[in-house]
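User: Teach me something about this protein's shape.
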Amino acid sequence: MDDINLEGITSTGDSVKNDQYDLNFSENFLIKGSQEITVDLALEQSQADFCSISGNVVDDAGLPVEGAIIKLFDSEGNSFLHTVTNSLGNYSFSGLKSGNYSITCVKNDIVLTVAENLYLQDGEIKTYSFTVNYNPNLSLCSIAGLVLQERTNEIIAGATVRLLEPTTRRTIASTLTASDGEYVFYDIIAGDYIVIATKQGYQTSADTLVSAINNTIINTNIKLELDPIENLGTISGVIKHQEAVVANAFVGLYKILEDGKELLIATTRSNSKGVYMFGKVEGGNYKVKAKLNR
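Assistant: First, the predicted structure itself:
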């Protein structure tokens, strides 16, 4: 077999040769006799040429910020990597390829910093640190949830949700549920509150008492019961003979029962214009019949 010189990280005098590509290997294979075998290998760029970013996060008083999220985005603005600062406020990213990146910092009580663009050259070790400001509003409470129909749990869009002070029932905030039935109140000062929901066609919800604590999110769903009065329908029409209206005609409203039989549940008379109407009709299947004696 011919001699092969494998150059890795070697030292000759004062010079150091670093790998350009990391060592890779093939699967085991067997050669029989004069068989010809082709073995291709794909080499990966060595970590020695990769870049790193490190730094720390401090507040405006110069104190380290623990638990801040440091997020790295690629040149297209896509989320790439993230890490969390330690107790000294330090963070680091390693194994990065050269190119354009942007980096930002956030925490629950810190406003997201403006993304800073960074360019990394091959093998570059870059330092980037943040000085952040606390936002007291971000430490306040949020109250959120869904408004649902009682019994069916169907979402209710367009319901009015109000946040009340418990003693005076003064409205502190008001909002409408979105198309997915969600509502949210934010920047709420710690304390006790009542949440209620209303919508036409439904009875006003019972009081929901919530206790808000700073830097927390409270999720509470509210259920609305259909208003039996609001959800009764009407049936009306005109009684005619050919093109002429029929006044004072007998009109009967029949309910179709589960067995298909018809039950007369209401009667009325058409007016001088031939018009009739039944009010407060519950949901169900019905039939209208009319006649006029001589």
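Now, about its shape. Confidence is low (pLDDT under 50) at residues 1-13. DSSP finds no helices and 25 strands in the chain. If you'd like, I can walk through any region in more detail.
User: That's plenty for now, thanks!
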